[in-house]
Specification:
By secondary structure, the protein is mainly β. It has one domain (24-122): Immunoglobulin-like. The chain contains one helix and eleven strands, in the order ββββββββαβββ. The protein has one helix at 83-86, and strands at residues 2-8, 11-18, 26-31, 35-36, 43-51, 64-70, 73-76, 80-82, 89-96, 102-110, 113-122. The strands form three sheets. It has a five-stranded mixed β-sheet with strand order 4-11-10-6-8.
């Protein structure tokens, strides 16, 4: 493990930890917004990738992530991402369908990790 501490005037203001041990790596997914308008125009970015046990993105991770959506929405972007080509992160946009309210579930999958899902409300 590597820990880097940042100090200002002798007081520690930041600490970051990193690890070379890949046995605790995990798939992550996050959305910029918890809910969007179901108007066919509004959208939110959903990002995903591989992180170490401290939450740092693994820029050299490989494999293919697939993206699937259930519910009243559409994916704007590719539904497969080769992590080697994308710096080990990817993103899609989720757009609502006009007049179809509820929520969508976006699931990202990688062959070496458990799938992760995130829910976005359609208001």
């Amino acid at each position: 493990m590597l820990r880097i501490d940042g100090y200002i005037r002798g007081k520690r203001v930041i600490s970051r930890s990193f690890t070379g041990d890949r046995t605790h790596d995990r798939l992550w997914v996050t959305a910029d917004d918890a809910a969007i308008a179901a108007d066919g125009i509004d959208s939110t970015r959903v990002a995903f990738g591989i992180a170490d046990e401290f939450g740092n993105t693994r820029p050299a991770a490989d494999g293919v992530i697939t993206v699937a959506l259930t519910g009243p929405g559409k994916i704007v972007g590719d539904t497969t991402f080769d992590l080697t080509d994308s710096g080990a992160v990817g993103a899609v946009w989720v757009r609502g369908v006009p007049g179809q309210h509820g929520s969508v579930q976006l699931t990202v999958s990688h062959p070496a990790f458990d799938s992760k899902s995130i829910v976005v409300g359609m208001l």
